[in-house]
């Protein structure tokens, strides 16, 4: 029986139950129903599974401390045998802990200190290589010398060793020469042929 145009025929009874059952093929409609079910399965969107939260990480930053060197008259040193420090560059950033500081001053004199540096704090270490010696004078007759701003004299002078001192030479009250002289332990200051402190 031909169906007039515009008229939709719906199955009833057993045919209706078979049409509504998944996977069942109704005669005349099997291809269309199977194609529709396949299309529905292909277009299904899978449910989103929330990603597992990454474990929280904690980063601890340890602040360095600062080491400051004080040296008289001067020294060149090493920290822990590998980091240079001196009176010219006296500041050094170091991790917290105990550090070994070795410094060498004039005439090869060397000393060692153990210094504890705290995080975020300033620590200081001091070296004093100053020693004094009596400088004997061996001058030409009538000559006198003045160390720094001191008045001229021909008498022995006590001076600090390991430093270069300014020395002015006077003859009959008039300054005739000046220069810087390294003061060594037990040295004798002479004015001829030049100003120097000899061992």
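^ structure tokens above, recovered residues below v
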């Amino acid at each position: 029986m031909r169906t007039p145009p515009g008229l939709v025929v719906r199955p009833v009874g057993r045919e209706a139950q078979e049409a509504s059952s998944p996977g069942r093929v109704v005669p005349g409609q099997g291809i269309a129903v199977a194609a529709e079910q396949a299309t529905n399965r292909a277009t299904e969107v899978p449910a989103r599974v929330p990603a597992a939260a990454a474990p929280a990480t904690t980063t601890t930053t340890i602040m360095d401390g600062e080491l400051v060197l004080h040296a008289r008259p001067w020294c060149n040193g090493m920290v822990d045998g590998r980091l240079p420090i001196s009176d010219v560059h006296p500041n050094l950033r170091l991790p917290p802990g105990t550090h070994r500081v070795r410094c060498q001053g004039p005439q090869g004199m060397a000393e060692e200190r153990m210094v504890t540096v705290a995080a975020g704090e300033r620590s200081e270490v001091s070296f004093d290589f100053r020693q004094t010696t009596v400088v004997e004078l061996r001058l030409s007759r009538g000559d006198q010398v003045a160390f720094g701003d001191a008045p001229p004299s021909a008498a022995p002078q006590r001076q600090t060793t390991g430093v270069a001192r300014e020395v002015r030479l006077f003859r009959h009250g008039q300054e005739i020469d000046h220069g810087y002289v390294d003061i060594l332990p037990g040295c004798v200051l002479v004015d001829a042929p030049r100003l120097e402190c000899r061992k």
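The radius of gyration is 49 Å.
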